[in-house]
Amino acid sequence: MLDSASWTNDTVREVFPFVVIVIGSENMFRLINAVLETPAEQPTSSRIAIALGEVGFLSSVVVGTDLGLLLIISQFSVPAVREFCTFAGVALVMDFLLHLTYFLAVLSVDVRRLELQDSLDRLTFNKPESYDKQMDPEEGRAKLGELIMQRAMPMSTRIAGSVIVCFTVPYLIS
Fold this sequence. Notes:
Elements: H1 9-37, H2 44-75, H3 79-124, H4 129-132, H5 140-149, H6 157-173
Helix pairs in contact: 1-2, 1-3, 1-6, 2-3
């Protein structure tokens, strides 16, 4: 068990990269899932605009709420926690700006790449196996992992968050 005396500034700074990963992944997965839920018949720019319209406000509210909580915590805490809150706040703002600019551009290119790949698959009659598979009700749970790995089913934010927590918690404890 760790006591407060064993936490130095260096120990706290080792956690900073994990904070950026956890903070940044939620909005990304939410936007990806919204893009995947839009009709594929629409142009890529329309799909991304519709998805951003659906989840953009929620992402803004989450970032604003997180910044408010970090501000309140930093006002009533020790200097090490204040430093952490400052870093997390700057990381939140930068991540949100990059989310609305760079990540949207990369997502747009990736969606166009997937559409081109689907068009090529239809032209060559080489459909991926995931298109032909239908989920049997009895085998639904067993096939879930297989469908996620084949990209036939989007990974939800809950699964992604659980994976991140599973990988970061043992590092934080040690």
